[in-house]
Design brief:
Layout: H1 5-17, E1 35-39, H2 46-62, E2 66-70, H3 77-84, E3 92-94, H4 98-106, H5 114-117, H6 142-151
């Protein structure tokens, strides 16, 4: 089937413009009751503050309460486990952080599989990561540090 250039451009334009049009089908109203945001770290810390800011923004825009619950301990695993065991109805959210990605390699007997049991919904914050070493370490870049660490494992 040969598509004329003009018809192709019309089709491409329609595909590009389609997301801007109002949705014909809509989901059920959400939320219809309070939603819990679980922060796996102590109140007053970065994770807690982020959860509270997100919760307030969501409450303002969705006109329903978003309540932050701090479930501390085990590097965030206690909060994660609480969300994994909650009803899968979208009313218990986890503010996942870097430790959630690392914990699978640190803890041998977790009662959940983070990748399998948690579904990502949105990225809400980006945090820069920094690697610092003692000035006596002869590395100026991350690549040099990795090479140094591989060449001299367990040595300072």
């Amino acid at each position: 089937m040969k598509i004329l250039r003009r018809n192709f451009l019309k089709l491409a334009g329609a595909l590009i413009a389609a997301p801007a049009l109002p949705r014909l089908a809509s989901a059920l109203d959400y939320p219809t009751r309070p939603t819990k945001i679980v922060a796996g770290f102590a109140a007053g810390g970065g994770v807690d503050i982020t959860a509270r800011l997100i919760g307030q923004w969501l409450a303002d825009h969705l006109k329903q309460p978003f309540v932050v619950e701090n479930r501390t301990g085990a590097g965030g695993n206690i909060g994660t486990e609480a969300v994994v065991n909650a009803a899968p109805d979208g009313y218990t959210l986890l503010l996942a952080t870097v430790p959630n990605a690392v914990n699978a390699s640190l803890y041998e007997k977790l009662s959940f599989n983070f990748v399998r049991d948690i579904a990502p919904v949105a990225g809400v914050i980006r945090v820069p990561m920094v690697v610092l070493v003692h000035p006596a370490v002869p590395a100026q870049t991350l690549a040099e540090f990795i090479a140094y660490a591989k060449a001299k494992p367990w040595k300072g």
